[in-house]
Amino acid sequence: xxxxxxxxxxxxxxxxxxxxxxxxxxxxxxxxxxxxxxxxxxxxxxxxxxxxxxxxxxxxxxxxxxxxxxxxxxxxxxxxxxxxxxxxxxxxxxxxxxxxxxxxxxxxxxxxxxxxxxxxxxxxxxxxxxxxxxxxxxxxxxxxxxxxxxxxxxxxxxxxxxxxxxxxxxxxxxxxxxxxxxxxxxxxxxxxxxxxxxxxxxxxxxxxxxxxxxxxxxxxxxxxxxxxxxxxxxxxxxxxxxxxxxxxxxxxxxxxxxxxxxxxxxxxxxxxxxxxxxxxxxxxxxxxxxxxx
Length: 293
Description:
Blueprint: H1 6-16, H2 19-29, H3 35-42, H4 66-78, H5 84-96, H6 130-146, H7 153-167, H8 174-186, H9 190-200, H10 203-206, H11 223-226, H12 240-252, H13 269-289
Helix pairs in contact: 1-13, 2-3, 2-13, 4-6, 6-7, 6-8, 8-9
């Protein structure tokens, strides 16, 4: 069984990562307190309740963005550092900026004029993004179940919107499916979630959205991307041997400098460095969830 070098990862984070990722690592692996994680997240908060300032490294504008909000809330949730005031403010921003049918846009127009990844482009007409809406709804449902978060009116409408997308699944990519799987892992109606997984789960194979061999080069999406935890609903889609091979590869993917890399385009040195810090903490969390560290 391959295991990572946690001390080397600690050194990598100290040399390269943001304060946020260093605090998340301390919380998870060094018995750190929740307060510093909360404070690090709050540093990215805007007066309007949303989050920006390149918290999600691909969008480097100060203005609030949907993906930055999910990054903030996930950081709080994963670190057992949930803060109701921060979450309520974020939900208020989502409600104030929601499309007519609810949900969340992929990129808010406040990105214009600021550095951003090539794919961070506002969609004409500002429609609801299945990716952002499903991610945020899943995160807020997880918080309600595990951290005492209350259901916000934005969440009720977003949940119905995601269900409608699942019921009439159209053209989807791997990021869409990963977001929908995250939603299904946490939405309260568990019977409906399991039925939905039975229905849409095979799509990732039918449309070649998943790569079973984690050593395949390029921007790929492996089983652990779709089912990162032992209790993920999508875990039933994969043989245990496939998951074990993925965990072995993840552990051995630790670089000589102690960190992990990402497999998508490095469009900015700053974004690449910040994503590597995030990827390092996430790799360690995934490996620990499977008893690998």
